[in-house]
Design goal:
The complex is a heterodimer of chains A (about 250) and B (about 350).
Chain A: E1 6-15, E2 18-28, E3 33-38, H1 44-51, E4 59-64, E5 67-69, H2 74-79, E6 82-85, H3 97-101, H4 116-130, H5 149-162, E7 167-171, H6 179-194, E8 198-202, H7 206-212, E9 215-220, E10 223-229, H8 235-248
Parallel strand pairs in A: 3-8, 3-9, 6-7, 7-8
Antiparallel strand pairs in A: 1-2, 1-4, 4-5, 9-10
Chain B: H1 22-28, H2 30-49, H3 51-54, H4 57-66, H5 68-82, H6 90-107, H7 114-143, H8 147-166, E1 171-172, H9 181-186, E2 188-189, E3 193-194, H10 195-213, H11 215-225, H12 227-232, H13 237-263, E4 265-266, H14 275-284, H15 296-316, H16 322-344
Antiparallel strand pairs in B: 1-4, 2-3
The chains are: A alpha/beta (about 250), B mainly alpha (about 350).
Chain lengths: ~250, ~350
């Protein structure tokens, strides 16, 4: 059997008395796009933050390519190829573009001094070639706080792309985007698939998820309520089931 | 869309360059230009109103003698405020460093060589300052208490420690005059340029390099701007903030040494009067109390504005009673200017 790119086994996360996640088993295959669906507060964001190393699970195990990883941290997860486009975008809005693109892993020499020229060059290249931003307003030295929602999202995506990404996590990436920008984002998710990489895609919009995901995992009240291959279920059936889960907490 | 995923960046043949324009330069460096404008305007006013004083070199030599005592600390304090933290304890650290200094000097009498003893004493003072800074940072980060409150407490604690350890006594440290550290730290080059000014310039350049050209400074900006984003992207914000507190401690102890060497005397209340001038220099220079923005050059100029006002008030012919009123006026006006520039800026 082929190894999973990422696997969570019996992962639970408690915040004090609150059980945010309980006994989660989750797999992400090689070159698979998994959609995560669930109501507000179902535990999607907590699950994501465990995968990215921001939260440590209270119990349970995490495997990358079949190998168990202990004490996952953000830098460790990044080294393993996890890149994230966060719901809150994780930008520093008072800083300029190149500082945001290289946030947390600035290019620098062995003494720790920054290679600013190279970061500006790379930023310019990424924004114009990869994202198709031609406006002077999104130059490497412009301040990110002045960008539109779509431009900010573009920054968060470019940042995930620049580095060796094997698993791309998209947490509510279409929130606050215009229709055109959202369509662009969907085509970006498809390009992840074509590039042979894996992705976890979280969105409120079930249409978006159904369109791009190979498999849909439904989370409810901190538990996995069920999962479906999108090719085996029609959009209408999926929606009916989602409503049923939201009301009763199970599919039966 | 091309999914670029090479771990190492492809070599870019063409550098990204924006043609130079004055408008753009003014936008990018609006904070620095703003405070430079205030600085020049004030000194022109001083020269016009008191030409005898402000056209002679002596007043500038006097400024360069006394301003570095607090301007030194304003540089690392700027870095700390950019990281959205605050330190009120640096004045007490100045004195506590000197206590470590004199204890070490007294405790190494067996060495015999005064220069060696003073050298060890200086190292001890710098270490003590750095450790107090570390403790400030540790309490702030580990217990999650606002740094304003923590350092309000440690400010009293270390001042109290100084009083207890010295029984509140003052004493001369004339012996330092026989070592080469004396001319090195507080000598005068050509009878005009005080060495403490040279040290201020050194600290300013190092501070600028750290904040603007080093990974540490990049993380300081990000931590102060949005600590949540910084943590999501893997910045160790706790470590960054503790390091910034340690810098303030280190330089405060150094400023304490420089000050006490200059007067060749130790007073247990050393540093007491510098709290507000140092803070005012930082905020006058355009560093935001909300973190994320601030410049070293602004603080440097801010310190000289603060340091010059008192002398200028008297030279112009006003009574000393006017000093604080003018302080207040200039500080409030400058902070309004900076807020306005920040909103308009790039």
């Amino acid at each position: 059997m082929e190894e999973y790119r990422l696997e969570l086994r019996n992962v639970s996360k408690y915040f004090g008395e609150v059980k945010a996640l309980e006994d989660i088993n989750f797999q992400l295959g090689q070159n698979e796009i998994v959609g995560l669906l669930g109501d507000n507060g179902a535990g999607k964001s907590t699950l994501i933050k465990i995968i990215t190393g921001y939260h440590q699970p209270t119990s349970g195990e995490i495997y990358f390519n079949g190998k168990k990883v202990d004490h996952l941290t953000v830098p460790k997860a990044r080294a393993l190829g996890v890149e994230t486009v966060y719901q809150e975008r994780a930008l520093a809005e008072m800083q300029n573009l190149w500082r945001n693109i290289f946030l947390g892993r600035e290019l620098c020499n062995s003494m720790g001094f920054l290679d600013i020229q190279r970061m500006r060059d790379e930023t310019h290249r990424l924004m114009t070639q990869s994202m198709g931003f031609t406006s002077q307003a999104v130059g490497p030295d412009s301040r990110v706080g002045k960008y539109s929602g779509g431009e900010k999202q573009g920054v968060a995506i470019v940042r995930a792309l620049f580095f060796e990404a094997e698993i791309i996590v998209l947490d509510e990436p279409t929130m606050g985007l215009s229709l055109k920008e959202a369509a662009k984002l969907i085509s970006f998710v498809n390009s992840i698939k074509e590039a042979g990489k894996s992705a976890i895609f979280i969105d409120h919009n079930i249409f978006h998820v159904y369109d791009v995901a190979d498999r849909v995992v439904v989370i409810d009240r901190g538990k996995v309520a069920g999962e479906f291959m999108t090719q085996n279920i029609s959009l209408n059936d999926l929606m009916e089931k989602m409503v049923h889960v939201a009301e009763t907490g199970s599919f039966e | 869309m091309n999914a670029e995923s090479n771990g190492t960046a492809p070599i870019v043949t063409q550098h990204y360059k924006v043609p130079f324009s004055i408008k753009r330069f003014a936008r990018v460096y609006s904070a620095q230009l703003g405070i430079l404008g205030v600085f020049l305007t004030l000194f022109i006013i001083f020269i016009v109103l008191a030409p005898n004083t402000f056209l002679s070199g002596r007043i500038y030599s006097a400024f360069m003698t006394s301003i570095p005592f607090f301007a030194l600390m304003a540089i690392p304090l700027t870095i700390l405020v950019v990281a959205k933290e605050m330190d009120l304890s640096f004045g007490s650290i100045m004195a506590m460093g000197m206590v470590a200094f004199s204890f070490t000097y007294d405790g190494t009498a067996f060495i015999g060589n005064t220069t060696a003893r003073v050298f060890l004493a200086i190292i001890a003072a710098l270490l003590a300052g750095t450790m107090i800074g570390w403790l400030n940072g540790f309490i702030v980060v580990k217990f999650g208490i606002p740094s304003l409150v923590v350092t309000l407490g440690t400010q009293f604690f270390w001042r109290g420690a100084v009083l207890v350890l010295t029984s509140g006594t003052n004493f001369p440290i004339e012996y330092i005059k026989g070592t080469f550290f004396y001319p090195l730290l507080v000598g005068k080059i050509g009878g005009f340029l005080p060495m403490q000014m040279v040290w201020l310039i050194v600290v300013t350049i190092v501070g600028w390099l750290l904040l603007n050209r080093h990974k540490f400074g990049a993380h300081v900006y990000l931590t102060g701007d949005n600590i949540n984003s910084a943590e999501l992207m893997g910045v160790n914000t706790g470590r960054v903030r503790i390091q910034a507190f340690m810098l303030v401690g280190l330089v405060s102890a150094f400023a304490g040494i420089v000050y006490c060497f200059y007067i060749a005397y130790f007073w247990p209340n050393t540093g007491d009067g510098y709290l507000l001038s140092t803070l005012a220099s930082v905020f006058l220079g355009g560093t935001s109390v909300f973190g994320g923005t601030g410049t070293i050059l602004g603080t440097f100029l801010g310190a000289f504005i603060i340091g010059a006002i008192e002398a200028a008030t008297v030279a112009i012919g006003l009574t000393g009673f006017w000093t604080q009123l003018i302080y207040g006026f200039i500080i409030v006006l400058s902070v309004i200017m900076h807020t306005y520039l920040r909103k308009r800026g790039e």
